[in-house]
Design goal:
Layout: H1 2-14, E1 25-31, E2 36-40, H2 53-63, E3 69-76, H3 86-95, E4 100-105, E5 108-113, H4 114-117
Parallel strand pairs: 3-4
Antiparallel strand pairs: 1-2, 1-3, 4-5
Length: 130
């Protein structure tokens, strides 16, 4: 299954729209149902409107009816493993108590659990949040 996730993320990387940063990223999420959804980063001249590959893949999963995510694979054009940004970490935490984050770049790979990348995330299941 992980090979399929990496292939989906690499295919998405090829479709990334990054004319400003030149940092192309592809991501693929594995829903707990076994379905795979991919996404790429899409930049905008108004930088704040840029959307990361991780969120694009996750939003595709949600649009496809999936709200429980088990794993995400992230590939980037930098040639080294690239972790998700803080905004992506928080959005991922909305749909996974914890998930495996696999970062692939060149011939290197890093793995981490979302809870290690974003300890004490804001989540609806935490007391004090609605």
């Amino acid at each position: 299954m992980e090979g399929e996730l990496i292939k989906a993320a690499l295919a998405a990387l090829e479709r990334a729209y990054a004319p400003y940063s030149k940092h192309r990223v592809g991501a693929a999420v594995l829903a707990r149902s076994g379905r795979i959804f991919a996404g790429c980063n899409v930049e905008n001249a108004s930088y704040g409107l840029t959307v990361c590959a991780e969120r694009t893949a996750l939003f595709a999963a949600v649009a496809g009816g999936e709200t429980s995510i088990a794993r995400i694979v992230i590939v980037s054009s930098t040639g080294r493993p690239t972790p998700p940004c803080g905004a992506c970490r928080q959005v991922l935490a909305e749909f996974a108590q914890d998930l495996e984050v696999v970062m692939v770049g060149g011939k290197s790979e890093k793995r981490a659990w979302l809870s290690a990348l974003l300890p004490d995330a804001f989540r609806k299941d935490r007391k004090g949040l609605s």
